[in-house]
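INTERNAL AUDIT FORM
Audit reference: QA-55
Scope: verify that the stored structure record matches its stored sequence.
Auditor: D.O.
Record contents follow.
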Amino acid sequence: MYVGLVGCGLVGNKRARGLGSNHRLAAVADKDLTRAESLASQHSGCDYFADWQAVVGHPACEVIIVATTNDTLAEVATAAIDRNRPVLIEKPAARNSKEIEPLIEIAERNGVPVKVGFNHRFHPALIQARQIWDTGELGDLMYIRGRYGHGGRLGYEKEWRADPRIAGGGELLDQGVHLIDLSRWFAGEFADVDGYVNTYFWRMPVEDNAFMLLKTIAQQVAWLHVSCTEWKNLFSFEIFGRNGKLQIDGLGGSYGTERLTYYQMSPEMGPPATVISEYPESDDSWEMEFAYFIDCIQHGCEPQGNLKDAKAALRIVEALYEKHTSGKSVRL
């Protein structure tokens, strides 16, 4: 398929590299024309523009990827859906749930498939964890514990992610939505939201840490922490069942080797049987996610990790911000 890409920053470049060999980048746009030109130069015959509307309306583009800053995600995606172009929109898909509601409406009305960039679902350790989970071997879910963080970089407080008008929020909205999405993937819907957000280190008007306590109706819990004061990059996600535990550590690169550890309890209790799987390969979750989306388009299937999943994650984010203001936990 011929692909149009809006947003040629770090994530946009990752998305371009993740197209695979069967698809071609036909047009790109970025408000910084030099970034658009740089990316286009790596793809033969690729047009480049400063105006995103030129990509959305480009006659060759069959699929649109939206990888802009958060403040324009919904606007660009809406225009693409209105032209009946399938869209892969980067998470969180909007700054808040109100911005995403028109997207859901127009996508359903036009019958256009839309995938949100929850690429963590496509990391091999998480894929294998989900396969084990689906067997029922772990028994009933008790709780989930997740940590995700990085240490920022010089000038981080001056970047767009530190501007609430552009980003919509801080670390909770950035890495937090990944942990929320993964928790919903295993636990289902959460009914109660509690926790705390604060800015400990970076001099910026958004939070640099968020602590979440999410509960289902059945009192299953996800205890999550996201941080941009995690001085050594960290990813850890643990799923506790009555019969065992799945623990995912690392995402490759600066987050360390990706690893799944499966702890299987015995009837006699004591030390569990332990199986460790490591994935030292480079991160191909971006390519796997795009291939999955194309398969959904071709077979007329609604993708997992869609706009409704993004809205549910955003509602949890908003509930935690509300709790921060009111001091009271929120029931969804």
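Auditor finding: record pair retrieved intact. The first strand starts at residue 2 and ends at 6.
Action required: none
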